[in-house]
Amino acid sequence: MAKLTLDGVTKVFDDGGDDIVAVDSADVDIDDGEFLVLVGPSGCGKSTTLRMIAGLETVSTGEIRLGETVINDQPPTARNIAMVFQSYALYPHMTVRQNMSFGLEESTDMPKSEITQTVEDAAEMLGIADLLDRKPGELSGGQQQRVALGRAIVRDPEVFLMDEPLSNLDAKLRSQMRTELQRLQEDLGVTTVYVTHDQTEAMTMGDKIAILNDGKLQQVATPIEAYHQPANRFVAGFIGEPSMNFFEMERNGDSLVGEWFEYPLSSETAAELDDAERVTLGVRPEDVELVASGSGDHEFRTVVDVVEPMGNENNVYLRFAGGDESKPMEERETFVATLSGMRTIEDGQEVIARIPEEAIHLFDAETGTALR
Ligand code: ATP
Fold first, then answer.
1. Which atom of ligand 1 is nearest to the CA of 212?
2. Where does the chain cross the membrane (predicted)?
3. Distance between CA atoms of 46 and 218, rounded to whole angstroms?
Protein backbone atom coordinates (compact mmCIF):
# COMPACT_ATOMS: atom_id res chain seq x y z
CA MET A 1 0.00 0.00 0.00
CA ALA A 2 1.22 3.49 -0.64
CA LYS A 3 0.67 7.16 -0.52
CA LEU A 4 -0.17 8.78 -3.86
CA THR A 5 1.14 12.29 -4.50
CA LEU A 6 0.35 14.73 -7.29
CA ASP A 7 2.92 17.49 -7.31
CA GLY A 8 2.24 20.38 -9.70
CA VAL A 9 0.62 17.99 -12.17
CA THR A 10 -0.38 19.72 -15.41
CA LYS A 11 -1.86 18.40 -18.64
CA VAL A 12 -1.88 20.50 -21.77
CA PHE A 13 -3.59 19.08 -24.85
CA ASP A 14 -2.65 20.41 -28.25
CA ASP A 15 -5.92 20.97 -30.06
CA GLY A 16 -4.76 21.80 -33.58
CA GLY A 17 -2.35 24.51 -32.45
CA ASP A 18 -4.46 25.71 -29.51
CA ASP A 19 -3.34 24.70 -26.05
CA ILE A 20 -6.03 23.30 -23.81
CA VAL A 21 -4.94 23.24 -20.18
CA ALA A 22 -7.07 20.34 -18.93
CA VAL A 23 -5.35 20.11 -15.51
CA ASP A 24 -3.40 23.05 -14.09
CA SER A 25 -0.73 22.46 -11.39
CA ALA A 26 -2.67 20.01 -9.26
CA ASP A 27 -1.18 19.34 -5.81
CA VAL A 28 -2.80 16.54 -3.79
CA ASP A 29 -1.58 14.07 -1.19
CA ILE A 30 -3.67 10.94 -0.83
CA ASP A 31 -2.50 9.07 2.22
CA ASP A 32 -2.04 5.33 2.36
CA GLY A 33 -5.50 3.75 2.54
CA GLU A 34 -7.30 7.06 2.11
CA PHE A 35 -10.43 7.52 -0.04
CA LEU A 36 -10.36 10.73 -2.09
CA VAL A 37 -13.40 11.83 -4.07
CA LEU A 38 -12.71 14.05 -7.05
CA VAL A 39 -15.69 16.21 -8.07
CA GLY A 40 -16.35 19.09 -10.43
CA PRO A 41 -18.49 20.12 -13.40
CA SER A 42 -18.30 18.43 -16.78
CA GLY A 43 -15.01 19.11 -18.58
CA CYS A 44 -13.14 20.31 -15.47
CA GLY A 45 -10.39 17.69 -15.85
CA LYS A 46 -11.46 14.82 -13.58
CA SER A 47 -11.01 12.01 -16.09
CA THR A 48 -7.76 13.48 -17.37
CA THR A 49 -6.40 13.50 -13.80
CA LEU A 50 -7.41 9.88 -13.31
CA ARG A 51 -6.00 8.84 -16.67
CA MET A 52 -2.64 10.45 -15.87
CA ILE A 53 -2.49 8.52 -12.59
CA ALA A 54 -3.32 5.31 -14.45
CA GLY A 55 -0.69 6.04 -17.11
CA LEU A 56 -3.24 6.24 -19.93
CA GLU A 57 -2.33 9.88 -20.51
CA THR A 58 1.12 11.50 -20.31
CA VAL A 59 1.86 14.22 -17.76
CA SER A 60 2.91 17.56 -19.35
CA THR A 61 4.69 18.89 -16.25
CA GLY A 62 4.83 17.92 -12.59
CA GLU A 63 5.27 14.61 -10.81
CA ILE A 64 3.05 11.72 -9.83
CA ARG A 65 4.57 9.63 -7.03
CA LEU A 66 3.51 6.33 -5.56
CA GLY A 67 5.28 6.17 -2.23
CA GLU A 68 8.68 7.69 -3.01
CA THR A 69 8.75 6.50 -6.64
CA VAL A 70 8.04 8.90 -9.50
CA ILE A 71 5.73 6.94 -11.84
CA ASN A 72 5.32 9.53 -14.64
CA ASP A 73 7.17 7.40 -17.17
CA GLN A 74 6.03 3.96 -16.06
CA PRO A 75 3.71 2.25 -18.57
CA PRO A 76 0.21 1.49 -17.20
CA THR A 77 0.96 -2.22 -16.82
CA ALA A 78 4.00 -1.50 -14.64
CA ARG A 79 1.93 0.61 -12.22
CA ASN A 80 0.31 -1.30 -9.44
CA ILE A 81 -2.94 0.58 -10.02
CA ALA A 82 -6.36 -0.81 -10.95
CA MET A 83 -9.02 1.23 -12.67
CA VAL A 84 -12.78 0.65 -12.59
CA PHE A 85 -14.77 2.36 -15.32
CA GLN A 86 -18.36 3.52 -15.58
CA SER A 87 -18.85 1.16 -18.53
CA TYR A 88 -17.44 -1.85 -16.56
CA ALA A 89 -15.50 -2.87 -19.71
CA LEU A 90 -16.15 -6.61 -19.25
CA TYR A 91 -15.37 -9.08 -22.03
CA PRO A 92 -18.79 -10.33 -23.20
CA HIS A 93 -17.61 -13.70 -24.51
CA MET A 94 -15.82 -14.64 -21.26
CA THR A 95 -17.40 -15.98 -18.08
CA VAL A 96 -17.23 -14.00 -14.85
CA ARG A 97 -14.41 -16.27 -13.71
CA GLN A 98 -12.46 -15.65 -16.92
CA ASN A 99 -13.09 -11.89 -16.74
CA MET A 100 -11.69 -11.83 -13.23
CA SER A 101 -8.70 -14.10 -13.84
CA PHE A 102 -7.68 -12.82 -17.27
CA GLY A 103 -5.50 -9.95 -16.01
CA LEU A 104 -3.66 -12.19 -13.56
CA GLU A 105 -3.01 -14.83 -16.19
CA GLU A 106 -1.70 -12.26 -18.67
CA SER A 107 0.44 -10.05 -16.50
CA THR A 108 1.65 -12.17 -13.57
CA ASP A 109 3.29 -15.53 -13.16
CA MET A 110 0.90 -16.51 -10.39
CA PRO A 111 0.27 -20.31 -10.45
CA LYS A 112 -3.13 -21.34 -11.83
CA SER A 113 -4.31 -22.80 -8.52
CA GLU A 114 -3.54 -19.54 -6.74
CA ILE A 115 -5.40 -17.53 -9.41
CA THR A 116 -8.44 -19.76 -8.94
CA GLN A 117 -8.29 -19.24 -5.19
CA THR A 118 -7.82 -15.44 -5.49
CA VAL A 119 -10.77 -15.13 -7.88
CA GLU A 120 -12.99 -17.27 -5.65
CA ASP A 121 -12.06 -15.27 -2.55
CA ALA A 122 -12.84 -11.97 -4.28
CA ALA A 123 -16.12 -13.37 -5.67
CA GLU A 124 -17.06 -14.48 -2.15
CA MET A 125 -16.28 -11.04 -0.77
CA LEU A 126 -18.46 -9.41 -3.44
CA GLY A 127 -21.34 -11.88 -3.13
CA ILE A 128 -21.01 -13.15 -6.71
CA ALA A 129 -19.55 -16.61 -6.00
CA ASP A 130 -22.59 -18.31 -7.55
CA LEU A 131 -22.27 -16.31 -10.77
CA LEU A 132 -18.73 -17.33 -11.72
CA ASP A 133 -19.79 -19.44 -14.69
CA ARG A 134 -22.16 -16.89 -16.20
CA LYS A 135 -21.34 -14.43 -18.97
CA PRO A 136 -21.78 -10.65 -18.48
CA GLY A 137 -24.90 -10.65 -20.69
CA GLU A 138 -26.60 -12.88 -18.11
CA LEU A 139 -25.98 -10.45 -15.23
CA SER A 140 -27.79 -7.39 -13.90
CA GLY A 141 -26.06 -3.99 -13.92
CA GLY A 142 -25.21 -4.26 -10.23
CA GLN A 143 -23.75 -7.75 -10.71
CA GLN A 144 -21.68 -6.56 -13.65
CA GLN A 145 -20.38 -3.72 -11.52
CA ARG A 146 -19.32 -6.23 -8.86
CA VAL A 147 -17.45 -8.25 -11.49
CA ALA A 148 -15.63 -5.10 -12.62
CA LEU A 149 -14.69 -4.44 -9.00
CA GLY A 150 -13.64 -8.07 -8.56
CA ARG A 151 -11.32 -7.80 -11.53
CA ALA A 152 -9.66 -4.80 -9.87
CA ILE A 153 -9.48 -6.44 -6.42
CA VAL A 154 -7.77 -9.67 -7.56
CA ARG A 155 -4.82 -7.66 -8.78
CA ASP A 156 -4.21 -6.57 -5.17
CA PRO A 157 -3.30 -3.06 -6.35
CA GLU A 158 -1.75 -0.25 -4.33
CA VAL A 159 -4.29 2.19 -5.74
CA PHE A 160 -7.88 1.95 -7.00
CA LEU A 161 -9.04 4.51 -9.54
CA MET A 162 -12.78 4.68 -10.09
CA ASP A 163 -14.43 6.75 -12.79
CA GLU A 164 -18.13 7.17 -11.95
CA PRO A 165 -18.46 3.43 -11.30
CA LEU A 166 -22.05 3.61 -10.06
CA SER A 167 -23.55 5.99 -12.58
CA ASN A 168 -25.23 3.31 -14.69
CA LEU A 169 -27.15 1.85 -11.75
CA ASP A 170 -30.67 2.81 -10.68
CA ALA A 171 -31.06 4.98 -7.58
CA LYS A 172 -31.77 2.19 -5.09
CA LEU A 173 -28.96 -0.08 -6.21
CA ARG A 174 -26.66 2.87 -6.39
CA SER A 175 -27.17 3.74 -2.75
CA GLN A 176 -26.69 0.09 -1.75
CA MET A 177 -23.47 -0.19 -3.80
CA ARG A 178 -22.27 3.10 -2.34
CA THR A 179 -22.18 1.67 1.16
CA GLU A 180 -20.84 -1.69 -0.04
CA LEU A 181 -18.02 0.00 -1.89
CA GLN A 182 -17.12 2.10 1.11
CA ARG A 183 -17.02 -0.98 3.34
CA LEU A 184 -14.94 -2.86 0.81
CA GLN A 185 -12.46 -0.02 0.48
CA GLU A 186 -12.14 0.18 4.25
CA ASP A 187 -11.65 -3.59 4.59
CA LEU A 188 -9.05 -3.70 1.83
CA GLY A 189 -7.39 -0.45 2.92
CA VAL A 190 -6.46 0.43 -0.66
CA THR A 191 -5.70 4.08 -1.48
CA THR A 192 -8.59 5.17 -3.71
CA VAL A 193 -9.36 8.06 -6.05
CA TYR A 194 -13.04 8.16 -7.01
CA VAL A 195 -14.51 10.48 -9.64
CA THR A 196 -18.17 11.39 -9.46
CA HIS A 197 -20.80 13.96 -10.45
CA ASP A 198 -23.07 12.81 -7.66
CA GLN A 199 -23.45 15.10 -4.64
CA THR A 200 -24.36 12.29 -2.27
CA GLU A 201 -21.38 10.18 -3.29
CA ALA A 202 -19.10 13.19 -2.95
CA MET A 203 -20.35 14.05 0.52
CA THR A 204 -20.64 10.58 1.97
CA MET A 205 -18.03 8.29 0.49
CA GLY A 206 -14.65 9.93 0.85
CA ASP A 207 -12.29 10.75 3.68
CA LYS A 208 -11.44 13.79 1.60
CA ILE A 209 -13.02 15.61 -1.28
CA ALA A 210 -11.11 17.47 -4.00
CA ILE A 211 -13.13 20.03 -5.95
CA LEU A 212 -11.89 20.81 -9.43
CA ASN A 213 -13.06 23.63 -11.69
CA ASP A 214 -11.68 24.56 -15.07
CA GLY A 215 -8.59 22.41 -14.52
CA LYS A 216 -7.75 24.02 -11.18
CA LEU A 217 -8.13 22.42 -7.78
CA GLN A 218 -10.32 24.71 -5.68
CA GLN A 219 -10.11 22.94 -2.33
CA VAL A 220 -9.01 19.62 -0.87
CA ALA A 221 -10.66 19.02 2.50
CA THR A 222 -12.92 16.68 4.43
CA PRO A 223 -16.48 16.81 3.06
CA ILE A 224 -17.65 18.55 6.24
CA GLU A 225 -14.95 21.22 5.95
CA ALA A 226 -15.73 21.84 2.29
CA TYR A 227 -19.41 22.19 3.19
CA HIS A 228 -19.04 24.43 6.22
CA GLN A 229 -15.84 26.29 5.34
CA PRO A 230 -15.75 26.49 1.55
CA ALA A 231 -12.53 28.09 0.33
CA ASN A 232 -14.33 30.17 -2.26
CA ARG A 233 -17.64 30.94 -3.85
CA PHE A 234 -17.29 28.20 -6.44
CA VAL A 235 -16.94 25.46 -3.81
CA ALA A 236 -19.75 27.01 -1.76
CA GLY A 237 -22.09 26.87 -4.74
CA PHE A 238 -20.99 23.47 -6.01
CA ILE A 239 -21.31 21.52 -2.77
CA GLY A 240 -24.82 21.25 -1.33
CA GLU A 241 -28.27 20.68 -2.82
CA PRO A 242 -30.15 23.00 -3.21
CA SER A 243 -27.18 25.31 -3.69
CA MET A 244 -26.17 28.04 -1.30
CA ASN A 245 -28.05 31.34 -1.84
CA PHE A 246 -25.83 34.22 -2.94
CA PHE A 247 -26.55 37.95 -2.76
CA GLU A 248 -24.35 40.67 -4.26
CA MET A 249 -23.77 43.43 -1.70
CA GLU A 250 -21.87 46.71 -1.39
CA ARG A 251 -20.15 47.56 1.80
CA ASN A 252 -21.29 50.63 3.70
CA GLY A 253 -19.31 50.86 6.94
CA ASP A 254 -20.36 47.90 9.09
CA SER A 255 -23.32 47.13 6.90
CA LEU A 256 -23.87 45.34 3.58
CA VAL A 257 -26.33 46.90 1.19
CA GLY A 258 -27.95 44.89 -1.59
CA GLU A 259 -30.73 45.54 -4.04
CA TRP A 260 -33.39 44.05 -1.79
CA PHE A 261 -32.15 44.38 1.72
CA GLU A 262 -29.56 45.81 4.03
CA TYR A 263 -27.59 43.48 6.27
CA PRO A 264 -25.86 45.02 9.30
CA LEU A 265 -22.79 43.15 10.53
CA SER A 266 -21.40 42.89 14.02
CA SER A 267 -18.06 44.68 14.37
CA GLU A 268 -16.25 41.30 14.62
CA THR A 269 -17.73 40.12 11.31
CA ALA A 270 -17.12 43.48 9.63
CA ALA A 271 -13.45 43.25 10.67
CA GLU A 272 -13.13 40.05 8.60
CA LEU A 273 -14.00 41.89 5.39
CA ASP A 274 -10.54 43.52 5.31
CA ASP A 275 -10.83 46.17 2.63
CA ALA A 276 -13.30 44.35 0.37
CA GLU A 277 -15.88 46.84 -0.89
CA ARG A 278 -18.02 44.44 -2.90
CA VAL A 279 -19.01 41.31 -1.08
CA THR A 280 -21.06 38.23 -1.93
CA LEU A 281 -23.21 37.15 1.00
CA GLY A 282 -23.99 33.42 1.05
CA VAL A 283 -26.45 31.45 3.13
CA ARG A 284 -27.32 27.78 2.95
CA PRO A 285 -31.04 27.01 2.41
CA GLU A 286 -31.25 25.09 5.69
CA ASP A 287 -29.93 28.12 7.58
CA VAL A 288 -32.73 30.42 6.40
CA GLU A 289 -35.45 30.52 9.09
CA LEU A 290 -39.07 31.58 8.75
CA VAL A 291 -40.30 33.49 11.77
CA ALA A 292 -43.72 34.60 12.94
CA SER A 293 -43.16 38.33 13.20
CA GLY A 294 -40.21 40.45 12.23
CA SER A 295 -38.46 42.38 14.92
CA GLY A 296 -34.73 41.73 14.54
CA ASP A 297 -31.99 43.03 12.31
CA HIS A 298 -31.65 40.11 9.98
CA GLU A 299 -35.28 39.56 9.14
CA PHE A 300 -36.87 40.32 5.78
CA ARG A 301 -40.39 40.46 4.39
CA THR A 302 -40.85 37.85 1.68
CA VAL A 303 -43.58 36.14 -0.32
CA VAL A 304 -43.61 32.39 -1.00
CA ASP A 305 -43.12 31.86 -4.73
CA VAL A 306 -43.09 28.07 -5.01
CA VAL A 307 -43.02 25.21 -2.52
CA GLU A 308 -41.18 22.09 -3.69
CA PRO A 309 -42.21 19.20 -1.42
CA MET A 310 -39.39 16.68 -0.96
CA GLY A 311 -41.17 14.44 1.56
CA ASN A 312 -39.15 14.88 4.72
CA GLU A 313 -38.54 18.53 3.87
CA ASN A 314 -39.79 21.35 1.67
CA ASN A 315 -37.72 23.64 -0.49
CA VAL A 316 -39.49 26.97 -0.21
CA TYR A 317 -38.61 29.56 -2.87
CA LEU A 318 -39.09 33.08 -1.55
CA ARG A 319 -39.17 36.52 -3.19
CA PHE A 320 -38.26 39.70 -1.40
CA ALA A 321 -41.33 41.84 -0.69
CA GLY A 322 -39.39 44.85 0.60
CA GLY A 323 -36.82 46.96 -1.25
CA ASP A 324 -37.87 48.78 -4.42
CA GLU A 325 -41.66 48.36 -4.13
CA SER A 326 -42.20 49.63 -7.67
CA LYS A 327 -40.73 46.42 -9.11
CA PRO A 328 -43.30 43.75 -10.02
CA MET A 329 -43.15 40.59 -7.90
CA GLU A 330 -41.97 38.35 -10.74
CA GLU A 331 -38.85 40.49 -11.23
CA ARG A 332 -37.75 40.27 -7.62
CA GLU A 333 -34.85 38.08 -6.57
CA THR A 334 -35.68 34.60 -5.29
CA PHE A 335 -33.83 32.53 -2.73
CA VAL A 336 -34.55 29.17 -1.20
CA ALA A 337 -35.17 27.98 2.34
CA THR A 338 -35.26 24.30 3.29
CA LEU A 339 -37.83 23.61 5.98
CA SER A 340 -39.19 20.56 7.72
CA GLY A 341 -41.79 18.77 5.58
CA MET A 342 -44.18 18.90 8.54
CA ARG A 343 -44.64 22.65 8.21
CA THR A 344 -47.60 23.81 6.17
CA ILE A 345 -46.77 26.66 3.91
CA GLU A 346 -48.44 27.81 0.72
CA ASP A 347 -47.67 29.69 -2.47
CA GLY A 348 -48.34 33.42 -2.15
CA GLN A 349 -48.13 33.43 1.65
CA GLU A 350 -46.28 36.37 3.22
CA VAL A 351 -43.53 35.27 5.58
CA ILE A 352 -40.58 36.81 7.39
CA ALA A 353 -37.26 35.20 6.53
CA ARG A 354 -34.42 35.39 9.00
CA ILE A 355 -30.84 35.02 7.85
CA PRO A 356 -28.88 34.56 11.07
CA GLU A 357 -25.49 36.22 11.15
CA GLU A 358 -23.72 33.17 12.57
CA ALA A 359 -24.76 31.19 9.47
CA ILE A 360 -23.66 33.58 6.74
CA HIS A 361 -20.68 33.14 4.44
CA LEU A 362 -18.91 36.13 2.95
CA PHE A 363 -16.85 36.14 -0.24
CA ASP A 364 -14.81 38.82 -1.93
CA ALA A 365 -17.00 39.64 -4.96
CA GLU A 366 -13.93 40.24 -7.18
CA THR A 367 -11.95 37.11 -6.44
CA GLY A 368 -14.56 34.79 -4.93
CA THR A 369 -12.23 34.00 -2.02
CA ALA A 370 -13.95 33.27 1.28
CA LEU A 371 -13.60 36.08 3.79
CA ARG A 372 -15.22 34.11 6.58
P1 ATP B 1 -16.75 14.84 -17.62
O2 ATP B 1 -17.27 14.98 -16.23
O3 ATP B 1 -17.67 15.46 -18.64
O4 ATP B 1 -16.31 13.46 -17.96
P5 ATP B 1 -14.05 15.70 -16.95
O6 ATP B 1 -14.04 16.56 -15.78
O7 ATP B 1 -13.70 14.28 -16.77
O8 ATP B 1 -15.44 15.80 -17.71
P9 ATP B 1 -11.91 15.75 -18.90
O10 ATP B 1 -12.47 14.65 -19.73
O11 ATP B 1 -10.75 15.45 -18.04
O12 ATP B 1 -13.06 16.40 -18.01
O13 ATP B 1 -11.55 16.96 -19.87
C14 ATP B 1 -10.93 18.16 -19.43
C15 ATP B 1 -10.72 19.09 -20.61
O16 ATP B 1 -9.73 18.56 -21.48
C17 ATP B 1 -11.95 19.33 -21.46
O18 ATP B 1 -11.93 20.66 -21.89
C19 ATP B 1 -11.75 18.38 -22.63
O20 ATP B 1 -12.41 18.87 -23.78
C21 ATP B 1 -10.25 18.41 -22.78
N22 ATP B 1 -9.72 17.14 -23.34
C23 ATP B 1 -9.81 15.91 -22.79
N24 ATP B 1 -9.19 14.99 -23.55
C25 ATP B 1 -8.68 15.66 -24.61
C26 ATP B 1 -7.92 15.27 -25.78
N27 ATP B 1 -7.53 14.02 -25.96
N28 ATP B 1 -7.58 16.25 -26.65
C29 ATP B 1 -7.94 17.54 -26.45
N30 ATP B 1 -8.65 17.97 -25.40
C31 ATP B 1 -9.02 17.05 -24.48
1. 6
2. none
3. 13
